[in-house]
Amino acid sequence: xxARKSKTVQEFAQRADLTEFVSKLPNSDLLPVxxxxxxxxxxxxxxxxxxxxxxxxxxxxxxxxxxxxxxxxPVGVVAAQSIGEPGxxxxxxxxxxxxxxxxxxxxxxxxxxxxxxxxxxxxxxxxMVWLDEKHRYSRETAYEVARKILQITLEDVAEEIDIGDGYxxxxxxxxxxxxxxxxxEEVITAVKGALGKxxxxxAEVEKEGKAAFTVINEEMTRAVGYRLKEKIKAxxxxxxxxxxxxxxxxxxxxxxxxxxDEEWYIIxxxxxxxxxxxxxxxxxxxxxxxxxxxxxxxxxxxxARNSIIEEVISILHEQGLEVDTRHIALLADxxxxxxxxxxxxxxxxxxxxTSVLAKAAFEVTVNHLLAAAESSETDQxxxxxxxxxxxxxxxxxxxxxxxxxxxxxMRNVGDDERTKNGS
Length: 423
Prior knowledge:
Helix content is 46%, strand content 16%.
């Protein structure tokens, strides 16, 4: 061991010693807690000396202070430009997801529009399902979880469907039923459950052999039979409704765990976040969905905010575009500050505005002006948009300061001092 390294070990024998040392350095309290933790983590891992740690903290404080926003900075405009300009360079295509050639996922500008419009259903919903310690290190155990998640409908096991006057007959594929461990009695029970909610309540289900059954209703016409067939085909027998496909993927670990250097996870086509998180085999701390509304309903508004940030960052990085995270965080903050998810549209962005001109400047100008005229609304001209429209100073930057100077009174400033000096 070198002399410098030996000295470093003596200086910071424990991580707690380093933490205490950093906390007492000048201006270290200005840094956010996550930055402090990262400095301590890296400094301890690289065996830095006291002088080196002190220099790291000093430079970190300098960079942090330089990166702060000046008072009066129009952060909303800067964020809008910073996200909007790279958005014009995005492609309009759909891409294969993470090297999975069978699965297409919406990326680029269409996906960004989905997020800022706060659409409740993404065009290509998906989940990344991470597994617990018991199931993540083997493809076989991960496959068992994937089978448990995958939706199996009656259509997936049906081999032949016959429609006639008063009946719909189903012949099932015995191999597929065996593959998914499905019994005929289960199928009939599920079909009866679906029929109970349908209009054809008089229909009866009769078992025929080991792998066939017939739905009988003497009053049923062929047209009704075709509609009933489609309803029965969609009956879910196994798995989670909406999860139409699953893909097993593996990720190499940074450090081997219990002799394993990789772990398996599941990518799903379709999303039901709440039901997946109920599975014991799933790692709830890492499993995610690209459906922001599902994240909001299951985990709350803070999780939805983080989901918006991560989704936008992922979209931009995939396109090779770099945008400061703070601009994206400001967008996510605005979309979620009310406790709900607001779209960046006339149904969302104008709800928080009281200015008539600001609303009119965004969209549907005539409608806003007519409505304001009918109800005799008054505009205080206090915001940026309305100030620009009427030619006032905007309340940003130097325009934030309201300072009046009496120039007439200032003519005599200093006269008493000059008189004392004999000038």
